[in-house]
Design a protein that fits this description.
Layout lengths: L1 E8 L8 E4 L4 E5 L6 H11 L29 E9 L14 E9 L4 E5 L2 E3 L1 H7 L12 E2 L3 H7 L2 H12 L2 H258 L3 H74 L4 H9 L8 H4 L1 E2 L4 H8 L6 E2 L4 H4 L12 E2 L4 H9 L4 H5 L7 E2 L11 E4 L2 H7 L8 E4 L3 E4 L3 E3 L9 H192 L1 H83 L4 H7 L6 H18 L6 H63 L3 E6 L9 E6 L13 H18 L4 E5 L7 H14 L4 E5 L3 H5 L3 E6 L7 E6 H9 L1
Parallel strand pairs: 3-20, 3-21, 8-19, 10-11, 13-14, 19-20
Antiparallel strand pairs: 1-2, 1-4, 4-5, 5-6, 6-7, 9-12, 14-15, 15-16, 17-18, 21-22
Helix pairs in contact: 3-19, 4-18, 5-14, 5-15, 5-17, 5-18, 6-14, 18-19, 19-20
Length: 1178
Amino acid sequence: MQLKRIQLIGFKSFVDATSIPVMSHMNAVVGPNGCGKSNIVDALRWVTGETSAKQLRGQSMSDVIFNGTTGRKPVGRAAVELTFDNSDRRIVGEYAAFSEISIRREVVRDGQSNYFINGVPARRRDLVDLFLGTGLGPRSYAIIEQGMISQLVEAKPEDMRSHFEEVAGISKYRERRRETENRMRHTQENCDRLNDLRDELEKQLRHLQRQANSAEQYKLLQQEQRVMNVQMKALQWMDFENQLSEKKEKSDQFSVHYEAQLAALREHETDIEKSRLQSQTLLDEKDEVQKRFYGLASEIARLEQQIQHKQEQLKQWQQELEESELLWVELTQQSALQSEQIDIVTDEIEALKPQADDLQRVMNEANQVLIQADQRMRQSQNDCDNFQKQMSATAQQLEVSKTNISHYEAQKKQLSDRLAQAQTQLASVSLSTLSDEINPLNENTNILKSKITDIQATLLQLSQSIQQQRIVHQESQAVLSQGQGELQKIEAQQASLAALQQAQLQDHQADTQSWLAQQQLTQCDQLGKLIRVDAGWELAVETVLGDYFDAICVDSIDAVTDALNDLSKGQLTFMTAQSPERKQVEATKHEFEPHKILPTILSVIQHCDNLPSWLSSIYIADNLSEALRLKSQLQASESIVTREGCWVGNNWLRVSKSHNTEENFLVREKNLKNLQISITEQKEKLAELQAQQASAKATLEQLEETRDAQHKIFQETTAALTETQTNLSAKRSRLETLTQQQHRLISDIQQIEIQITQSETALTAANTTVAQFSEAQQLEASQKEFLFAARAEAESNLSAARVDAQMKKQQADERTIRLTSNENQLNVLTQSMNSNQRQLGQVTERRDTLKTQLIDADAPLKEWSELLQISLKSKISVEADLHAIESRLQTEQNQLKQYESNRDRLSKSLSGLQEEQQQLRLAQQETLVRQTTLKEQIAEMQFELETVLNELSPEANLSEWEEKVHKLQSKIERLGPINLAAIDEFKTLSERKTYMDSQVADLTESLEILQNAIRKIDRETRHLFKDTFDNVNTHFQNLFPRIFGGGSASLVLTDDDLLTTGIVVKAQPPGKRNATIHMLSGGEKTLTAIALMFAMFQLNPAPFCVLDEVDAPLDDLNVGRFCHLVKEMSKDTQFLIISHNKVTIETADHLMGVTMQEPGVSRIVSVDMKQAVELVEA
């Protein structure tokens, strides 16, 4: 992967479209200070995703846009594009198939950046992901600006790690890990929200399940109650007589049984008291034995510890005694040997002292002779050196003069050749052709700019329209959603009310429904659905007709009577419309006073002919007092009902109260009608809103399509403008270059002619000087032989004297060294023997002490062992006594528990018997009262008791029957308020709960997968980071001595955790032992950073590397080493070097100059050095 081209337009000082070709692996950028060289580095950093204006030497992102000069206006847009050759497929992923990849970034004055990859709009994240693992990035080690090279090695350990992650290709894992953690966090949040919803649904489901179960039970129990309620009172009365006699007999039995149980209880309480006394006695005995047992155990542990400690102490003393014996023998032998060596060394010292004095005197005499010979040699050598210098100067001046002659002749020839070449080049320069080509490009550029301005205005207008249309679309969508919510709310209310109505109408049982279906009566209306009642009289009508609301309205009663034999069981009511004649009869037959004063209930019932005929004898009154006032005038079949639901007859009164008017069937039916009307209106309103929303959406889509089309035209026009401006800039640059070349050639020709004249004059002077120095050289040759002979004789005498003096000095030094060595040896032996004597005394004293301690230690050890054996035997005996007492205590406690259990059982039984006896007496009295009351209730219900008893089956059991009826009534009462719509709501919420459970399971599985992915990423990161660190450290250790000519350097981890550890650079140049990297000089830091950077590149070479004046702190020697390394690295990486150093510039294969002929505007002049050299050589 290589960088082919850098294109800039409007970026900082590069206002015109500028194309910078990168044609080789070694490219140098040169130019004066302030011409815009570093702007190229900023452009590379910016286009690769830099978001900090501070890193680009600005305060805001819009500062990168050309801000104008004294002669140019500011521009509104800046763009930079890089083109890469990806033929080696280093870029992977979706762009791996492209052999050429371009990335482009644009910014406008509002600071908004746009990114493009291969001309397709992309996100900054896409661009950053594209370069992950390649070493490229806005702040990677591949782009080193001024002053940053030394900061690389001074970076914090965490920042240094980021560079290594890029080298290792871990940055993509880090990004993937961050995305995985974000997904895990979002997944966990979703899971938590779902769990909250599930918990809320579970609460609702538990509530709805209770309501649904209650509704189901309500239906079943209501049907069962209807069958059993009629027979209950008769069954109860039938059994009351038998219960009275049975209860009296049972009461006598309870008294006898109670006395027997009471005697048994007194006997058990006596046994319990005896058992408690025996248990307490055993507990006291156990405590006493237990104290003895614990005392013996503590004494045994103490004796065992003392014995063990004394045995270990004896073992240690025995070992010390053996070591002392061995050391005493060794020290005695050493003392004897050292005494003998002292005597030998003393004798040798006495013999060497006279010999050393004689040899010192002879050495001094030989040194005097050597000094005299050396003085004579120095004088002779000075004479020869002075003469030799004189001869060399003459010969050098002669050679210089000859060289000057050759130089002037070659210079004259070279100048003549340059004059001819310049004249030829001047004749070949033509400016008219380029001027003709530039004019059409200028016109085309202006046309394209005008077109782009128009398109931008159109796009701005379209964007505003789209924004407004989106607001309209969102508002219509919000209104539509609100209307749908209201519709759902109304439909839910309708469903709930409909369910309550259907429940009150009491659906027929399966057999009844089957019969109705056979008679084709299932489609007939029920009376409750046909009735319409005037406002305020709903409760009155429901009090009268409540039991008839489920009546089926048919055309004729005769039509269904023939088929009634096929109905096996069930209860049905049929009603037909009254004939007009019948209505007239019913309306006129009542001639008593209430009929003249009060209207009938038929007057408040509208639009219903299917009504019972007896309604014409029921009148309505506004209140109860009015009805009671007229009650005495009523006939037996007539009655009055009030608005509040009070129904008054001649000798009876019926009251129906309700806490909530919505529980009234007719009110609910009226509400259902109103809700149906609201639903219809809401649906019509929703249809209009949906049409408006669809229209807004279509308009928005049309505007977006128009904007996309205009944006595509804008991109094509911008690309054409960029290409035209690039061509125009190239043409202008070429014209400017040719103009400058023409002026330069004219000036060169004039200078060459002057230099040719100067060379001819200098050549004549040089020939005269050569002749003069040749004569002087011949005179000096005759004096040379005499001086060199005298020097040879002096050298011979000096050599003989030096050999004699050295021999004498060597003999004297040998004697002195032997004498000094013996004296030192004598001192060492004396000190060693004294030390051995002191140590021998200490060892002897310690040995005697240990022997005494070993003898004295046997007596207490035997005493302790005997005491231990006595204590162990006592412990065994006490432990046996303890077990025996515990066994007896456990037996006694078990017996006590059994007594107490029997007593509690008898007490509970006596309490139950006493309570039952009292209840039995109350029950006898209650039975008499209830029997009388029940007979009165049966009479009030207009039934004969004997008739009801005769109709009951012989198997009917009063107690069992009464229990069933009581349980049934209790169940109905416990159900409380019934929500009949809860069944469907429970089913809907259950399905939603099941769906959420599956979602939670999926999210939990996703979390596990993401956690496994993070663990895998961490493993790969550790492995890659460790390998990268080791390899870079190895390369760094090898490169550092090459750059410095010695020394050592290494990389050190700050932590054991490879996922978070930082990296510290340790560097010590030759001869230095600095503690930290901060103690190095600026040049040393630069060289260290270069070594580290190149070590990274050896492991993971980036596609290109930018070095902005990194050689500024280096001297020529280190610059040469730096250039040599860069040349080696350029085999794998393209280098773009910005420098002022000539040595660095000479290593480049391609030279690019940045000029600023027009103030504030940078331009590029590119030169291929190989082609330039070939042109010069040609």
